[in-house]
Structure formats: structure tokens, C-alpha cells
Amino acid sequence: MSTASAAEKSAVNGIRTALGIGGVLAVIVGILILAWPGKTAMVVAAIIAIYAIAAGLVYAGLGIFSKSKGGWARIGHIALGVLFIIAGVVALMNLGQTTAWLAVFIGILVGIMWIIEGIVALSTLGDARSKVWSIIFAVISIIAGIVLLFSPLWGAAILWWLLGIALIVLGIINVVRAFTFGKNDL
Hints:
- This protein has helices spanning 3-35, 37-65, 71-93, 95-123, 131-150, 152-180.
- It is mainly α.
- The longest helix is centred in the first third of the chain and has 33 residues, at 3-35.
- The termini are close together.
């Protein structure tokens, strides 16, 4: 076996491993979302809160220990760091409310994006090959966006449920890809 062939086989095995591990993790997270949607959402909110604390520590550290930054930049980094740390701690101490707020925020954000996407689809009707499909897409997108704006928590719950299903399906596909990747090439 040549060195190039061994390197190629090693690369294929690495890709297979990554696909397999990623697929299994996606299936596990998808099952957790479907089995315990509230608890899994709280874990996600906790991860975001912990990230905020870590980012706050980094920003504060940059402000405190940076020798090359000016005074206002250092103060800004320290202030931003303190705000991140406070936000993370408050979020962790009120995890239920943080999770609900995050769900509402995401519901509203997706609702706004769908409305804008529908409006953009309508604005490009002149360039569309199929005006009927563009209009159907735009109307559905705008209606779905409005529904999300009026019931963002319910909409976020449905999106969360769809995410769980998508993770399971895509995870299974990646596990299958892990077993079949590179079979024809070697």
C-alpha cells in the first residue's frame, strides 16, 4: 500500500468517524428534545448562560490584562465582561424564566424573518420563473410569520419539536453515510 493510498484511507476513516459520531449525537439530542422538550430547552438555556459567563470572563480579562489597548477600550471590555457575567448568572438563577424568554424571543425572531422572507419573495416576482409558486411561498411565509408573532411560545415549541425530528432523521442519515462513505472509492 502506497503512502498516498494509506493517507487517503486514513482520511476516509476520519470522515466516517466524524459522520458516525455526529449522526449518533444528533439522534441522541433529537430523542432528548422529543422525550423531554422542556428539560432539554432548559439545558440549552443553561449552556447559553454558561457561555455568557465564560465570554464575560474573557472580555473582562482582555480589559484588565491588555497592555496594547487604550483606556476607553479597556474600560469597555471590562464593562462588557461584567454585563455578560451578570446576564449569565441571572439566567442560571432563573433558568425556567430564561428558557421561556428565549423561546419567545426565537419565536418572534423567526416570525419576523418569515414575514420579511415572504415580502422579499413578492418583491422578486418579476424575476421568478414560476410566479405561482413564488406567490404561494410568499403567502405561506407571511401567514406563518404572523402566526408566530401572535403566539411565539407556541410557535417556538413547534419549531423545537420539528428540530428534534430533523435531528433524528439527519442523524440516522449521517450514521448510514458513515458506513457507506468511501466504499466505492477504495
